[in-house]
Structures are given as structure tokens and as C-alpha cells.
Amino acid sequence: MILLTGGAGYIGLHTAAVLIEAGQQVVLFDNFSNSKPLAVKRLEAIVGRAVPCVEGDVRSRADMDGLFDQHPVNAVIHFAGLKAVGESANQPLRYYDNNVAGTLVLLAAMQRAEVRRFVFSSSACVYGEPDVSPIPESAALRPANTYGRTKLMVEEILRDLHVAAPGWSIALLRYFNPVGAHPGGQIGEDPNGIPNNLMPFVTQVAVGRLPELQVFGGDYPTPDGSGVRDYIHVMDLAEGHRAALDWALRDPQEVLTANLGTGRGYSVLELVRAFEKASGKPIPHRIVARRAGDVPAYWGDPSLARQRLGWTARRTLDDICRDAWNWQRRNPQGFA
Ligand code: NAD
Ligand code: UD1
């Protein structure tokens, strides 16, 4: 059985759907600090069966030991964490507690339970402002914010753990920009409050919840002046987790660090145009000042994931926009 911490969240739900369809048994574990129990019901409707979900906190030793006592877990995918870059600057202790201390409690419980296969949700933000794109895994690691530092710290903890306990198999997955939704439209991204990220902002403009998109910066050294990112469909990302899990279940007893991206970038304005085409909805937008802390352009080199995991992102920007719109139009208020 595979434990998905943070399994009721955006990426966890989509990964659970892919793993269950592939025949895996999963147990979700979540404190619902950034998700809703209804989302798990939607997952159950997609896969057509009950999905065990335990409410608890990765920072609680009792919760973690109880989970491993009650479920025959043989691998863990660790999604649970806080992910808002701006918030992480204002609440550093909360972020280090959740993301770093929480992971330590989980790892110690895994050691007691003798579970040694671990897939970790890292982020491309461990690279900070890169020297080149596409970014290889060997690039310098200099995260530019607190959130990114929590991810890099956990990566380093896991490398140290592997030196001391070489029996562990650990995949560090550095995601680029996850977007889109399950094609059925029952699950998708449902941020609290006004979205910080581009795609949920665009979908909420399309559905009439927000009046217009602000494009942060029109004078970057990019083809159209707007920022460029590597947007990856969340279903491709979920399939990347399945590949990493299959790798870990073969007990390679190493630490594998892999980018999960598409290998190409799109600008904000390209994404807006693709979304307008997919949805048939105009997206009123206005170019405003750059957002503090933003990198002009970057995208990932996914060749290592292809070689080592046999995984490549297959879905296009049009697929991403179609599925993001399908989710939002069927659920204008998200999971509310
Ligand atoms: P999400 O917020 O939708 O999901 C995270 C889940 O973890 C939520 O359901 C939340 O309730 C739960 N959680 C948080 N703290 C917890 C705790 N202490 N105990 C138990 N559960 C807890 O976020 P997501 O987009 O699905 O991201 C999943 C992981 O991927 C996170 O670790 C995030 O940092 C990482 N990541 C996300 C992105 C992205 O753009 N979405 C990019 C790179 C990395
Ligand atoms: C942000 C985080 C990153 C995290 C990622 C995915 C920062 C500095 N980085 O990345 O750590 O892994 O989210 O969750 O915050 N944009 C607009 N208008 C908007 C929103 C965004 O023009 O209303 C632009 C941004 O300037 C950027 C692009 O859209 O060029 C993507 O932004 P966003 O979705 O926030 O992701 P990142 O900034 O790449």
C-alpha cells in the first residue's frame, strides 16, 4: 500500500487517481489545512471505489506511528506541505515547521516502521534564478525565497539520510509549473482566496469570479515581453509520480533527483491566448509592473527523467487549457 501524505491536495488527488487506475492500493493522509474532504469523495467517484483517507498531521508522531501501525505501507509519496511563496516570507517559522520539521517526523516514523521507499515533492524553485534554460538537475541550487529553502533543506536531509542508511530508495522530484486538471472535470486546483498563480487566476477570470488578469511585466527579455515558464499538465506530473514510485519499488537504494517538466516554456500571453481559444472566453488582461522576486524566464530539462524513469510529459498547452477550463466551468466555486 502506498501512503500519499497531502493526498487530498491538488497534485496528490491526481496522483492517487493515476495510481489507483494502475492497480495500486493507496491510503491518503491529510490535515485538510489546504484541502477539503469533498475532494476525496470526487476522487472516489472517478475511480469507482472507496479510497481510505486518514485525517492527521505529519508533524504528529502519534498520528504517523498510528498510520504505519494500521496500514501495510511499503512506500511513501510526500506531498504534504505549505506552498505559497509570499506567505513563506511572512511566516517562516510556520513554513519550516510544516515542511522541514513535518518531514523529519514522517521520516522517523518510516524508520520505526521499516519503510524505506520515499518520493518527495520538491520544486524548481530550488534553482532560484538559473544561469541557463533548459535547467539541468546539476544546476546551482540557490533558492530565492523561504519556501524554496524549505524544499532544498529537505532534499539535503534526504541525501544525508541515504549516506547513513543506504538501504533507502529516494526520488527527489523537482516540479516546474503544475497546471490543468483531470480530464473528467471532477477534481482540479482550488486555491483559497485570490489565486497567486497564473492558471487558477485565468480560469477564475473566465468564469466571472475575477474581473481581469494582471500580466506581471511586459518588458522582460522574452519574445513578447511577458514571463516564460514550463507549464506541465498535472496528469503528466501524476504519471511522473507513478514512474518514480515504480522505480522506488524496485529498491534501487539510491537518491535520484529528477526534474518533472516539459522541456519548453510558454509566455503568459501565449498561455492567455491558448486559454481563450480552448474556452471560447475572452480573458480581459492588462500589463502591469513586474512582480517582485519573479525570474524572467526558465524551463526544465526533462531528459534525466526520460532516461531514468522512462517518463515524458505528453500533453500540450491546448490540453492543459481545455482541462483547466473544464474543471473550472463545472465547478465555478471549486470544491465549495
Ligand atoms: P496542496 O496545498 O493542494 O496540497 C498539499 C496538501 O498537504 C493539502 O491537502 C494540505 O491540506 C496538506 N498538508 C499541508 N500540511 C500538512 C501537514 N502538516 N500534515 C498533513 N497534511 C498537510 O498543494 P499541491 O499543489 O498539491 O502541492 C503538493 C506538494 O508539491 C507540496 O509539497 C508543494 O510544495 C509541492 N509543489 C507544488 C507545486 C505547485 O505549483 N502546485 C510546485 C512545486 C512543488
Ligand atoms: C511560483 C513560485 C514557485 C512555485 C510555482 C508553482 C514565485 C516566485 N515562485 O512560480 O516557487 O513552485 O509558483 O506553484 O512565486 N503571472 C501573472 N499574473 C498573475 C500571476 C502570475 O502575470 O496574476 C505570471 C508570473 O509573473 C509568471 C507566470 O505568470 O511569469 C507564472 O506565475 P505563477 O503561476 O505564480 O508561477 P511562478 O511564479 O513561476
Topology:
Blueprint: E1 2-5, H1 10-21, E2 26-30, H2 37-47, E3 53-55, H3 61-70, E4 75-78, H4 85-90, H5 92-113, E5 117-123, H6 146-164, E6 169-175, E7 177-179, H7 198-206, E8 213-216, E9 228-229, E10 231-233, H8 234-249, E11 255-260, E12 266-267, H9 268-279, E13 285-288, H10 303-309, H11 317-330
Parallel strand pairs: 1-2, 1-4, 2-3, 4-5, 5-6, 6-11, 7-10, 8-13
Antiparallel strand pairs: 9-12
Helix pairs in contact: 1-2, 1-8, 3-5, 5-6, 7-9, 7-11, 9-11
The chain binds nicotinamide-adenine-dinucleotide and uridine-diphosphate-N-acetylglucosamine.
Uridine-diphosphate-N-acetylglucosamine binds near residues 214 and 291.
Question: Would you mind describing this structure in some detail?
Answer:
The protein is of the alpha/beta class and about 325 residues long. The protein has a single domain (about 1-330), classed as 3-Layer(aba) Sandwich (Rossmann fold), CATH 3.40.50.720. The protein has 11 helices and 13 strands. It has helices at about 10-20, 35-45, 60-70, 85-90, 90-115, 145-165, 200-205, 235-250, 270-280, 305-310, 315-330; strands at about 1-5, 25-30, 55, 75-80, 115-125, 170-175, 175-180, 215, 230, 230-235, 255-260, 265, 285-290. The strands form 4 sheets. A 7-stranded parallel beta sheet has the order 3-2-1-4-5-6-11, sandwiched between helices. Strands 7-10 form a two-stranded parallel sheet. A two-stranded parallel ribbon has the order 8-13. Helix 7 (about 200-205) runs parallel beside helix 9 (about 270-280) and helix 7 (about 200-205) crosses helix 11. The longest helix is centred in the first third of the chain and has 22 residues, at about 90-115. It is globular, with a radius of gyration of 19 Å. The relative contact order is 0.15. The model has no long low-confidence stretch (mean pLDDT about 95). Bound molecules: nicotinamide-adenine-dinucleotide (NAD) and uridine-diphosphate-N-acetylglucosamine. Nicotinamide-adenine-dinucleotide binds near residues 35, 57, 59, 79 and 123. Nicotinamide-adenine-dinucleotide binds near residues 30, 34, 57, 81 and 123.
